[in-house]
Amino acid sequence: MIREHSAFRICWDALILVLVLLSCLLIPYQLAFLHEISRVGNCLMMAIGLVFLFDIGLNFFTTYREGGSEVLDPAAVRSHYLRGHFAFDMLANFPLAALLLLAGDPQV
């Protein structure tokens, strides 16, 4: 199990924060200037998406607090994450390029 306040988890969450902020800049740019999307931009967004998918996997092994004590039971941790933020994390990680492909945009 990964302890929620371990040095690894704090550094990982900082990386995720930076990637979220980067995504907040890149996604509007790609939508506004769709005709100028480069392969580098698409590859960068795909790489960020893969890191976010890995983060979802890590969340299944990261402890949480309940009633002031840390829950270390793997089954309880998985169940808590599935009932909590899992659906939002999966929805937020849906690739924008896939939506554009479904819409029939040939430039993606």
Overall morphology: elongated
Query: Which strand order do you get reading across the main beta sheet?
Result: 1-2
| Major beta-sheet overview | 2 strands, antiparallel
Query: Residue share in helices?
Result: 55-70%
The mean pLDDT is: 86
Over the alpha carbons, how many angstroms does the gyration radius reach? 17 Å
- Strand pairing plus helix content: what structural class? mainly alpha
Structure characterization notes:
- It is a single chain.
- Helix content is 66%, strand content 6%.
- It has helices spanning 7-32, 39-59, 74-83, 86-92, 96-102, and strands at 64-66, 69-71.
- Strands 1-2 form a two-stranded antiparallel ribbon.
- Strand 1 (64-66) and strand 2 form a beta hairpin.
- Helix 1 (7-32) runs antiparallel to helix 2.
- The longest helix is centred in the N-terminal third of the chain and has 26 residues, at 7-32.
- The mean pLDDT is 86.
